[in-house]
Amino acid sequence: MTVNEAKEKLKEAPEGTFLVRDSSHSDYLLTISVKTSAGPTNLRIEYQDGKFRLDSIICVKSKLKQFDSVVHLIDYYVQMCKDKQTGPEAPRNGTVHLYLTKPLYPSAPSLQHLCRLTIHRCTAAVWGLPLPTRLKDYLEEYKFQSSSMSHPSRGAGRCRPRPPRRRKTEIPGKQQGTATTATTPRTLCVPLSPERG
Predict the structure, then answer these.
(1) Could you tell me which residue ranges the SOCS box domain spans (predicted)?
(2) Rounded to whole angstroms, how far apart are CA atoms 100 and 41?
(3) Do 90 and 39 form a contact (C-beta atoms < 8 A)?
(4) How far apart are CA 25 and CA 176, in angstroms?
(5) What are phi and psi of 59, to 5 degrees?
(6) Cα separation of 41 and 7, whole Å?
(7) Burial class for 39, CB neighbours closer than 10 Å (0-12, 13-18, 19+)
(8) Three-state DSSP class for 183?
(9) SS3 (DSSP) at 10
(10) What Å distances lie between residue 84 and 27, 39, 122, CA to CA?
């Protein structure tokens, strides 16, 4: 998901709605995108020496808490100020208040549904695939598919795999699609180094 895609998804969301996505900067792995009173904002997650922390301006970066996993990082900041502030506050003094109230997606999509989406992006000829009838029926159950996808005479589309992204640091056992939930408004105030791309 790109910066612009995240911005579009959060544009109409309530303040405090957030998501975690791949960072578009090659030096970072993940980014938190969150809807603030000033609009969608992006905050990179830094990985260094086996620990995760939020990216920030140099003078406060060393003071930020570090975590063993991204899930622990997000959960900490969601819980940190839950009893302090519950309403929006306008940005001031170079800081932005991030109200992490709920994830945009309350749960990760199932692997089988992600596979179905990939197949639909790669071919329009579902019934021409060497798959059992039961799986073909499942592929056609997706209500947002194009009407041309199920007809074997329409031909297959071309699937263009994404080129591999360059990373300076590889993390063993990195988990994808983990969702973090929060039930009450919480706040996080961090001087940002905003992500531009």
Answers:
(1) 99-145
(2) 12
(3) no
(4) 18
(5) -70, -20
(6) 8
(7) exposed
(8) coil
(9) helix
(10) 34, 22, 49
Residue range 41-50, pLDDT digits in tens: 888 999 888 8
- Gap between the Cα atoms of 52 and 45, Å rounded: 7
Tokens of residue 151, six digits:
């007809």
Give me the amino acid identity at 170: E
Beta bridge partners of 53: 46
Alpha-helix runs per DSSP H in the chain: 3-10, 58-61, 70-80, 111-122, 133-140
pLDDT digits (tens, 9 = 90+) for 11-31: 888 877 888 888 888 888 899
Burial of residue 133 (number of CB atoms within 10 Å: 0-12, 13-18, 19+): exposed
**CA neighbours closer than 13 Å in the CB half-sphere of residue 47:** 20
Task: Give residue 197's identity as a one-letter amino acid code.
Answer: G
- Give the separation between CA 56 and CA 64, rounded to whole angstroms: 9
Rounded to whole angstroms, the Cα distance separating 136 from 94 reads 54
Q: Is the dihedral of CA 144, 146, 151, 156 positive or negative?
A: negative
Q: What is the pLDDT of residues 101-138, one digit of tens each?
A: 777 877 777 888 888 888 888 888 888 899 999 998 88
